[in-house]
C-alpha cells in the first residue's frame, strides 16, 4: 500500500479562477522529481468544494496522466451526498486513480450509524481501495474509532487519514484495526510523532512547498530513525505552523505564488492571504530557504 509523504496537492488557478492546466502538470512533475511518495488530487487543499463534477474529474484525470504510474495518485471523492460520493469514486476509478480519499459527510451531521452506512455504500458500489478521512474541525462530524473498526472489516476500505492531531486517537485506531489498516496523519504538526508511533505516512499540506524535506522526514520516521525524523521536523515546524495562519489552502497557495510555482488564483468564498498575514509567512518562507533573502 501507499506509505510516506503524500502531498495534498493544490489546484493551480489563474487570477480569474480557471484551472491552470500547465501549472498543474508542472507541479506533478516537480513532486515526482522531489521524491514525494504519492499525490492526493482534489482533496480539501485542492479546493474540491468549489470544483464542478467535470472539473473535478478532469483534474484527477490530468494528475493521473502526468504521474504516469511514477507515483500513486489518490483521488479525493468524498461528499455529504452518498450518491455524489459514489459518482466521484466511480469516475476516479475509471480515470485511473490508485485509491480514493473520502471525507466524512459535512454539514448534515450524520450519526455514527449513518457514517457507517455511507462509507459502506460507497465501498460496495466501487471496487477501488478507499481511505476514510476524518477532519471534524472542518466537517462538524467526528468518525469515532469504534466506527472505524467496523469499517476496517470492509475489504476495500484500507485506511484512514486522521486529521484531529490526536495521537492517542491514532493509536487506538491502530490497536482496533491492526497493522494492515493504514493510518495516515492529516496534521503536519503531529505527523512525525504519529509515524514514529506506527503510522504509515502524512497526507501533507507542507509538502506542497517543501516536498523533498517532507519526503526525507517520512522516510526517516518510517524506518525508525527518530532522531533524524525529529531533526527534520524541527526544520519544518515554522512552515507547519504558518501555512495554517489562515484557512487552508489560502496560505499554501499564496506561498506557492510567492515561490513562482503558481498564479495567485483561488476561488470564492476563499480569498488570497490577507496583507496582515503576508509578512509573517514571507519571512517563514525565507528562513526555510524557499525564497531569496
Automatic annotation (TrEMBL):
Keyword hit for Transcription: no
GO CC annotation: cytosol
Single annotated GO MF: 4-hydroxy-tetrahydrodipicolinate synthase activity
Site (Part of a proton relay during catalysis) location in chain: 44, 107
Binding site for pyruvate: 45, 203
Highest taxon above the source species: Bacteria
Pathway assignment: Amino-acid biosynthesis; L-lysine biosynthesis via DAP pathway; (S)-tetrahydrodipicolinate from L-aspartate: step 3/4
SUPFAM superfamilies xref list: Aldolase
One BP annotation, GO: lysine biosynthetic process via diaminopimelate
Cytoplasm keyword on record: yes
Pfam families: DHDPS
PROSITE patterns named in the record: DHDPS_1, DHDPS_2
Catalytic activity reported: L-aspartate 4-semialdehyde + pyruvate = (2S,4S)-4-hydroxy-2,3,4,5-tetrahydrodipicolinate + H2O + H(+)
Enzyme class at the top of the EC tree: lyase
Protein's cellular compartments: Cytoplasm
Site positions per UniProt: L-lysine inhibitor binding: 49, 80, 84, 106
Function as written in the Swiss-Prot or TrEMBL entry: Catalyzes the condensation of (S)-aspartate-beta-semialdehyde [(S)-ASA] and pyruvate to 4-hydroxy-tetrahydrodipicolinate (HTPA).
HAMAP family in UniProt: DapA
NCBIfam families in alphabetical order: dapA
Listed name of the protein: 4-hydroxy-tetrahydrodipicolinate synthase
Organism name: Alcanivorax dieselolei (strain DSM 16502 / CGMCC 1.3690 / MCCC 1A00001 / B-5) (Alloalcanivorax dieselolei)
Gene name in the database record: dapA
